[in-house]
Structures are given as C-alpha cells and as structure tokens.
Write a structure and sequence with these properties.
This protein has 2 helices and 14 strands. By secondary structure, it is mainly β. The chain has 2 domains: 90 residues, Roll (Pnp Oxidase, Chain A), CATH 2.30.110; 117 residues, predicted glycosyltransferase like domains (Thrombin, subunit H), CATH 2.40.10.220. A hairpin with a 2-residue loop joins strand 2 and strand 3. The model has no long low-confidence stretch (mean pLDDT 80).
C-alpha cells in the first residue's frame, strides 16, 4: 500500500468502529481524543465494548478507498476507552475483503465439466472431475484465494475449491481463475494460481470473514506472548 495514503490516527479525527468482527454490520462513528504511543483514546464509552474485545477500525479516504484495521480494546472508563491497532491498515475498494497469508492449509480443486461451463454461473454442486490432490494455499479472503499447483490452469477457467478451515465447516466454493504466475522456486513446475469466488452465499461469506478476522487476532496474541519483555 502507498505509505502516503496510509491513515494516521490523530486527535480530533473521526473513525468508524465495527463491533461486528466481519466488518459487514453497522459501524459506530467516534472521535479520537488523544494518541499516546500506540494507544488511541476515544471520547465516550460505547455500549457493548469491553476491554479485551477486538473490533475493526474503518477510515475512508475520499477519492481513494476505505481502509480497515483490527484493534484491541485495552482500557476503559465511564468517560472514554483506549484501543490498540493490530497490524497495519488494509486498503479496500467496494467488494474487497481482508486477505491473510496461509502457511499450513491446503485446497483441492474440482474441474468443471464442459456442459456445466456453458450454463453460465457455476454452482458449488456443478458436475466436476475428481478434485486434484491437495495444493498448498498461499493466502485467503472472503473473495478468493491463491494456491500453488503443478497442474495447468487457464485464466477464466471455472473451478470448485474444496477446503477446510480450523474451527469451521468444510467449504466447496465455485470460483474462477483470475491469473496464473510463475512459482517462487524456478526449479519447480509449480505455479501460483489466483482465483475469485463466484456466487458465494451470505452464510459462507460470513464464515470466511469471521475466520480471517479471528486468525488475525490469534496471530497478534501469539506475537504479543513471544515478544521480549
């Protein structure tokens, strides 16, 4: 992200807070009272927010996009509360979602049959070949994913992605290949395949948003525990 456009929290700035961890619900507009190091003090005390909760901050920049960042509620009093941003701001255009890197999960890909390809939007239960062996994921969002594969994929190709997330049910999501890139290691035939999910229902979309947010929080807590005192 262009550093010149990264939001900087400062006194008097209005920001949005999403108590809903998916960032899809109603936001509460608040005013920054003071910035003390990495603690941001907010005027007032919104009902339902408690120390230890995680929320999403939102700051739109006119003519650019909206920016989101997770934050932890650190301190609270009847008159104000303090939050600590977790990680950096993510830039989001309309219909964009937070993307998180993946290191230990995999995906199986079902090829859509020729007949189903000609019927328009691909459904999750569209006829597919037997899914390929598992390929390692690189990153994931509610809008799509990237994975590495030895198989050949073509931009525009419809597929179905089968994968499981810890703490969530299994997913079988229709998708379309957006682009194919050279792999990280030139001596291997693997390619990076970027796909966009197509026609995902609200239940699956909410589950993906929830998991990505909670995984961000989990990684933040691990970093805090491992940080030198």
């Amino acid at each position: 992200m262009d550093a010149s456009k990264r939001p900087t929290l400062r006194e008097g700035m209005a920001i949005g807070i999403h108590p809903d961890e998916t960032g899809a619900g109603d936001r509460v507009m608040v005013t920054v009272e003071q910035v003390d190091g990495d603690l941001v003090w907010i005027k007032g005390n919104e009902e339902g927010l408690r120390a230890g909760d995680f929320v999403l901050l939102e700051h739109p920049i006119r003519g650019d996009a909206r920016y989101l960042a997770p934050a932890e509620i650190e301190l609270q009093s009847p008159e104000r509360f303090a939050l600590r941003p977790v990680g950096g701001w993510e830039r989001h255009q309309e219909r964009a979602y937070v993307r998180i890197s993946i290191h230990s999960l995999s995906v199986r890909v079902g090829r859509v049959s020729g007949a189903a390809r000609g019927e328009g939007e691909v459904e999750a239960d569209a006829p597919t070949d037997v899914p390929t062996p598992s390929w390692p994921m690189l990153d994931l969002s509610a809008g799509g994913m990237r994975f590495e594969a030895n198989d050949t994929f073509e931009p525009g190709e419809p597929i179905v992605c089968h994968f499981e997330l810890p703490g969530e049910a299994c997913f079988a999501l229709p998708a379309q290949v957006v682009r194919v890139e050279a792999g990280r290691l030139q001596r291997t035939p693997r390619r990076r395949v970027a796909v966009r999910f197509e026609g995902v229902d609200e239940s699956n979309k909410s589950a993906l948003l929830r998991w990505v947010f909670r995984e961000q929080v989990r990684r933040h807590r691990l970093r805090k525990r491992s940080a030198p005192v």
